[in-house]
Amino acid sequence: MSSRSSDHTKLRTNAALTKEAEAEVRRAMGRTLKKLGAVEMEIAGLQDRLVVLGQRKRDTKSFIEAHRRLLSPIRQLLPEILQEIFWQCLPVAHNSVLSAKEAPLVLGRVCSQWRRIAYSTPKLWCSLHIAIPPLTYSRAQAIFEAYEAWIARSGILPLSISISDAKQLEVSKDQFRSYFELITLHTRRWRSIYFQVPFSDKLDFLAEIDGDRFPLLEGFHVDRGYFGNLAMVDHLLSRKDGILSAPLLRVLSISRISLGTLDLPVQWSLLTGLNLSYANLQECFELLTLCLNLEMCTLYDVGRSHHSFSNSQSSNKSRPNIVLSKLQTLEIVGELRQDDTSWILLDNLATPALRCFVYRTFEGQDLSPTDLLLSIKVFRLFFQRLNQPLEELQLNLEEVIIIISLYVLRFTLWRLHAPGIYSV
Asked: Domain limits of the chain?
C-alpha cells in the first residue's frame, strides 16, 4: 500500500526517478501491457462472437418471418374471396387504365398466385380506357397487344370501354382504325362506350353496324371532335336502326350535333342519364319533357335565349313546366346572365328528389349588379321547390353574397364546394 502511495506521489511531481525506481516502473508497465493485450484479445473474441450471434439472430428471425407468412390469414382465403377483394380494388369514377401501378394490373405483381387468380377472373377486365399512343412512340405496338390481351381476359362478360387520343392530334387517322377494329369485334358485349376523338369521320365504322348488334349497350357517349366530316357523324347517329336504337340504352351523352337532337332515334322516356352540350333552349325544354325518368342530368352551354330572363318570367305559369321527380343529380355549366338558357330552365324546372346540385360558370365572367341579384332569386326559387334538403352543393361562384344567400335557405348540406370553402 505504501509502495502504491509512493508511486502515486511520484506521478504528481516532476522529480527525477532513481535508477532503481525507473527499473521498477518499467517492470510494472510491462506487466500492465500484457494485461491490456489480454483484455484486447478477449474483446476481439467477444466482438467476433457478437457478429456470429447477430447473424444467427437475423437468420432465426428470417426463418420465423418466412414461416409466419405461411400462417398469414390471407393465405387461407379462398380464390373466390380474393376475386371479390380484387373487384373492390377497381376504380369506380372511371374505366380501368393500362398501368402497372393501378388495379387490376398491379394485383398481378404481388405474387404468382395473385397473378394467376387476377388474370383468370374475367370481371376484373370488363372495364378499359384505351389511350391511343402516337405512332412515334416506341412501344405503340406492344401497347396495342396489351389492350388485345386485356379484352381477351374479359371472356364473354359485358364491356365498358372509353377511347381517346392520349396525345391530342398526334395520332393518325389510320392508327385509330386498328383500335376501332379491335373493339368492334366485341360490339355485342358493349355495356358502355365512350368516344372522344379529334377526327369525327373516323367514327364511320358505326354506320356499318345496326342497332341490334348492341343488345347490352346501356351508355353511349360521343364527342365528335372538330375535324373531319362532321356531318357524317350526324348522319350515322340519326339512323333509325343505328347504335342509338339499342334496346337497353339508358345513358346518353352527346355534344356538337348539328342536326336536331330530337331527331335522334332515342327512346327518351327510358333514359336515366343525359349529358347534353350545345343545344338550344327549345330543344332542352322538349327533351326534358320527354325524359321524365332521368336520375342524372348535365347541361353544358345550352346557348342563349332570344328573350331575357326578366321577360320570360312574366309569361311563366304559376308552377314549373317540367317536373323531373326522379332526378337526383343536376349539373349545369353556363353563364350568370339574363340571356343564358340555364336561368330560364331553372325557373321552369322542379326536381323534388334532387340530392346533388352543381353549377359552374365559365372563367373570367364578371357579373353586373342586376345579374347578381337575379341569380340569387333564381337559385332561391329553384331550391324552394325541393321536397328535402340537398346533400351536396358545388359552386364556383366567387361572389360571396350568393353563397350567403343560399345559407338563408337553411339547407342541411353534407358537402359544400365553393371558392375557398369546403365542408363535409
From this structure: 24-71, 267-424
